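Memo subject: From amino acid sequence to discrete backbone structure tokens
Keywords: amino acid chain, backbone geometry, structure tokens, three-dimensional fold.
Body of memo: The sequence and its backbone structure tokens, given next.
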Amino acid sequence: MKSVGLFWLAFLFVLPLSAQKGVPFNGLITDMNGKGISNVRVSLLNAKEKRTRTNRKGRFGLTDVAAYDTLKLVWKKETYTIPIEGRKSLKIMWQSQSHSVQAKEDQELVDFGYGFVKRREFTGYSSGISGEELRRSGASTILSALQGRIAGLNITTSSAPGEREGVIIHGQKSFYSSSTPLFVVDGVIVDDLSTISIYDVDYVEVMKDASIYGSQGANGAILVRTRRNGK
């Protein structure tokens, strides 16, 4: 009975942690003239091991950030804290003269996991296709519509009812480890794309090099932007 009690105690402890799992978070820090500020130290108050610095264009990225986390910024002996409050990105203006910062969510900044880059400035090898083109294929799912349209992307299907489609971008690496790519919908990592209707898709991008997502992107990534999140 004691072991059973310990099991349920551990279960109750782990459950809130899993429910609080965060998402990739990116930011851009500029001066009052819109010029990016480099070498600003960025960390989370609730997780000091998660820290980074802005690059020469003022961009930074952190992973697994929860909605209730708070950013800590340090630059030239000035320190500021900014509650994230559920936002997935922030454009921050550092006002040195008034010793303050202004922060707001910026819809033009696209979440790629590590390092904040605009979609048009992303240099990793990737292929994209519009939702309209996918729907013209007549396919009923996103993955089946992508088949034959993205070089190097292989989709395998099974006749077994309820079994998911298999996806390989780079080619089978190992018989013992998964070759499934990372799935990201509107900036949020998901288990698969089966719950996303092809009629809700605005744009799909297939990334063969998804190292910006760390080890999770080792097999590439498929990014889906839905109509409700489209620009």
